Amino acid sequence: MKLYDCAMAPNPRRLRIFMAEKGLELPRIELNILAGENLKPAFLAVNPRGLLPTLELDDGTCIDEVMAICRYLEELYPWQPLLGRSATERALVESLQRRAEFDGMISGSEVFRNQHPQFAERSIPGSGGQPIPAIPGLVQRGHQTIGRFYGWLEERLQRTPYLVGEALSMADITAWCAVDFHAWIERRIPADHPATQAWHSALSARPSAKA
Ligand SMILES: N[C@@H](CCC(=O)N[C@@H](CS)C(=O)NCC(=O)O)C(=O)O
Q: Rounded distance, CA 119 to CA 113, Å?
């Protein structure tokens, strides 16, 4: 197996943290998204979407989408489970992970890509290099969704130390990567959200934070 990765990008980071928490290491091929290396023919031959991360199996099968890769790795390496340990937990991790991804990660991307000059023709990831012009009005919508994301996060974390109960899960990892990604667009955890602040400080102290 080998992993096509990008050290600076938030979605590949979700996968690296997941792997670090499980103690997994894979050979990595680093591609610079800002320089458009993921849109060059060599990588488009691997993944026509140009999307990172992408996992290539030894038989040549390529898997993109962070959650698809995580599910594959969790099945192969079930220790330190991060996708839930019971039917209920698995459903909750799925539900909360998706909410963190849509309201935290994708809305961050909506703001970032629709205002950054370098992404003026790359407003949606995964088009394989087909130009998709930015829509500046989406910046405001993204900021509104981020506001809702922080309200939801604080409300959940007031009740439990992690998003799904007492153990770290992929729901936390996605929300955590979204929070750190928001620094790129000058959004921070609101000062009056103490549970989210404490959760974020604890996660940032984990060795996997450096992944
Ligand atoms: N839904 C995808 C999102 C992956 C994604 O958006 N990756 C970004 C990096 S954070 C990317 O590949 N961007 C390519 C580009 O901008 O050309 C997943 O969960 O893996």
A: 5
Q: Looking at the chain, list the stretches that DSSP marks H as alpha helix, in order from N- to C-terminal side.
A: 10-22, 41-44, 66-76, 87-99, 107-115, 137-157, 170-182, 194-204
The full set of domains in the chain, from first to last, is 2-76 (3.40.30.10), 87-206 (1.20.1050.10)
192: buried, middle or exposed (CB in 10 Å: 19+, 13-18, 0-12)?
exposed
> In angstroms, rounded to a whole number, what is the distance separating the alpha carbons of residues 160 and 199?
10
Q: Which atom of ligand 1 is nearest to the CA of 51?
A: 12
Is the pTM higher than 0.90? The answer reads: yes
What is the mean pLDDT of each successive set of 10 residues along the chain, which is 211 residues long?
A: 98 98 98 96 98 98 98 97 98 98 98 96 95 97 98 98 96 98 98 98 98 96
Atom in ligand 1 nearest the alpha carbon of residue 64: 20
How many angstroms does the Cα of residue 193 sit away from the middle of ligand 1? 29
How much distance in Å is there from the Cα of 14 to the middle of ligand 1?
11
Position 177: which residue type? C
